[in-house]
Amino acid sequence: MVLKWVTEEGEFSYDYKWLSNKPRNELISGISEDFKQMFGIYPDELKILKDDLTEVI
Description:
Blueprint: H1 2-7, H2 24-39
């Protein structure tokens, strides 16, 4: 999850069908709880920052 969070732009997508056959809501709940335990915040509470950096010449 962290790799996707760091490398993909935009809203985080819980695309883990390949990982488990659990229902989507059950899987998301478990992933969110694990994330909260590791980082102290739920993924859905994170604010997405827009990359507005421009090159200055």
